[in-house]
Design brief:
By secondary structure, the protein is α+β, with helices and mostly antiparallel strands. It is about 40% helix and about 25% strand.
Length: about 90
């Protein structure tokens, strides 16, 4: 697989650049157990720092929900890439 810049958008609208797809999947799979219940509030990245989004302050998601969303999006990129390589 050629090295190229890929990006995904997290559930809060942040664009995340994925430079090593397989490593990103492994990291997402290993980072948080499915039963993690720590809550996180929507945030946006400002100069690399996570800043709360005041208009979404009533929302809360578990860390597991956030990481599982990222994992699904990274796996979808991999699946699309694999399909392109089969042609």
């Amino acid at each position: 697989m050629a090295t190229r810049k890929l990006s995904i958008t997290d559930m809060f609208g942040n664009t995340i650049i994925v430079t090593a797809l397989i490593m990103a999947i492994a990291q997402a799979e290993a980072s948080v157990p499915d039963n993690a219940t720590n809550a996180i509030k929507p945030f946006k990245f400002v100069n690399g720092i996570a800043v709360s989004i005041p208009e979404r302050s009533s929302e809360a998601h578990t860390v597991a929900e956030y990481h599982n969303d990222l994992l699904a999006k990274v796996e979808a990129v991999l699946a699309r890439d694999d399909q392109g390589n089969e042609a």
